[in-house]
Amino acid sequence: MAHPVSPLARPFPAIPPIAGVTPRVARAGYKDWGRCDLTFIELAEGTAVAGVFTRNICCSSEVELGRQNVAQGHARALVVNAGNSNAFTGYRGREAVEAIMAQVSAHLGCPQEQVFVSSTGVIGVPLPKDKAKAGIEAALLAEPCDWQAAAETIGTTDTFAKGAMAKAVVDGRTVTLGAIIKGSGMIAPDMATMLGYIFTDAAVEPGFLQQLLSAANQRTFSCITVDSDTSTSDTVLAFATGAAGNAPLSSFDSPGADAFAAALEDVCRQMAHLVVRDGEGAQKFIAVTVSGAVSDESARKIGLAIANSPLVKTAIAGEDANWGRVVMAVGKAGEPADRDRLSIGFGGTWAAREGQPLADYDEAPVAAHLKGQDISIEVDLGLGDGRATVWTCDLTHGYISINADYRS
Amino acid sequence: MAHPVSPLARPFPAIPPIAGVTPRVARAGYKDWGRCDLTFIELAEGTAVAGVFTRNICCSSEVELGRQNVAQGHARALVVNAGNSNAFTGYRGREAVEAIMAQVSAHLGCPQEQVFVSSTGVIGVPLPKDKAKAGIEAALLAEPCDWQAAAETIGTTDTFAKGAMAKAVVDGRTVTLGAIIKGSGMIAPDMATMLGYIFTDAAVEPGFLQQLLSAANQRTFSCITVDSDTSTSDTVLAFATGAAGNAPLSSFDSPGADAFAAALEDVCRQMAHLVVRDGEGAQKFIAVTVSGAVSDESARKIGLAIANSPLVKTAIAGEDANWGRVVMAVGKAGEPADRDRLSIGFGGTWAAREGQPLADYDEAPVAAHLKGQDISIEVDLGLGDGRATVWTCDLTHGYISINADYRS
Fold first, then answer.
1. Which of A164, A233, B245, B267 is the most exposed place for a label (fewest CB within 10 A)?
2. CB B327 to CB A408 under 8 A?
3. Complex ipTM
4. CA B250 → CA A68, A86, B18, distances in Å?
5. Of B323, B331, B400, the CB nearest to A124
6. Residue B2 pLDDT class (50, 70, 90 cuts)
């Protein structure tokens, strides 16, 4: 973690152990750094799995195999490599992933497709098989670790460890959801957009877990952006061990399904926000709320056009209530909008209403709001009931420094 | 012109007077600056006009009226206001444009729809009618000026005056094309993406002029991007006075039509490159050539995904041959691509071929190339014959400084 801690960082939450989940970390030495970089998480037999993956079509072998293997619904282990994404490495990259899957499945006596692998870091260098093998052997001998150690180990350019926790009462039992996530650049909402893992002791049928994760993803991870760039490795996996002993959730008709779905979405939203809070060079956390659109999806697309606009992001970095740039971004989104019905505000104060600057616009509260760390931009299109909130960070000198120096 | 001159600047070319075109400049005082900011260009009777305009749906009244008026095919005058874009100003903004059109048409005794108006600068402040009126009166009394003075006057945050020139032999006569353009931020290829004006003494039927301009636009202005942000005011207009006396060009069957079309596209490409060369904070001019795509349009879209990627642009700023980021950008473009057929090079040297890093990759020539000012990125998709080149600049601290400080 070479860069200074983000000013928007949040402390790591107290996540208790999750029954049926055993995290361990080790040093594989993928890069020349003095830290653990391999995370090995063992999962109890019968653990259900669901996943969402990057839509980048130049995705890594890890993503290809993960997408394929999630279909059978069960998982026994997760291996996360940090420092090497193994993307764009051809058959050698694929062989490295398959070797990890074979090694772990032999150790656990489980089908190979129940071993999930993620890698993140530099693109184009095949993951060294020997380092991975030795790293896994070391992890198998290591003591189990806490969630913070696991979160630190999956990180790369992250400046702080990120975790989330929620509880829900399901079928009379309290179930726990714990999650870790990494990611700070190459973040755009076209699926998972980072590596994130959710673990719960709840019993959930794989198909229903997938349904819930996909729905939560659409309102959380798919609503964040740091720099509009979509990684080749993005993955979010959810694992449900069933150790809590509740009657397995199989649909919204199952008792407690609503509570579990809410807790899952809560954890996803916390994780998504943390990724934005560690956006490269971020100084401000920005929520863009678009209302009055023709549909929720249209509102989301307009929100992302605003959140991805370099001119809007630099204006916020400069604490400038430049609503004209917001107008521009609305207009370029390719979604229905009417210039003369558009209203734009900052921190709850309208700067322009129905296509014109407000005659009695008082800039003082807006200026005060923009000096803070948590910024809100409100856009009302005045067309319909569609609504969405997306989250991003400002674009600063820090982003340039980090990315013009990062070595390929 | 507050910022230092771009290191990529080009000297203003020697553009001769164009018969039938009379430029004048004046000081309207739209901003508190000691320079001319109103350009008035009178055109001979019978001048044909064609135009391409921003697709931003929150466009200015100038764009709305210009798009409407270009349909009747003729022009007698062009007025360009600098410092105030008059966008998002409701009915008051529209009134200001109509007042200018009325004033000029009364003076010239021409239909109002033959007066074209452009404005650029801050969004959201209605163009002050009294200043425009006085500015036009001053311009009418001014001596005609040269093209460099006109190019300087239409500029806003531009750091150097931009012009282009070409000649063609049409129907046995040498015709001249002279052009001026402004633009340095809020540049993305969704039509014209800046204010540009082409003047020629050739005789061209309006419909054919429009056909040629639209085609040239697709291969030039629609192939550049600075920051992916699409202005609400972008406009390119072409004016053909006919003073050269050639038999009017009406289709590609007209003698000299091909030569004229080539000269027009040449001028458009020169102008497009100049806009990129004045991209905010630009230190390097980048040409991205995509070949082997399923179509030219697919190649263009992939080229723009690369050219708009903040991670690619910062890598070039850092002189880092980070082809992994190029892979990422290809994969997020949403166009057909096959990771295992993809080849990527810099300055004519392949770094990766068919989905894998080159075993004998020699980074020395690439490193030397990246230290220069003119950078090329080559991408071969290995799928078909589609091909396109797009142009952009790097993303630097200068962009952040300019845009985090620019006041709304």
1. B245
2. no
3. 0.77
4. 58, 57, 21
5. B323
6. low
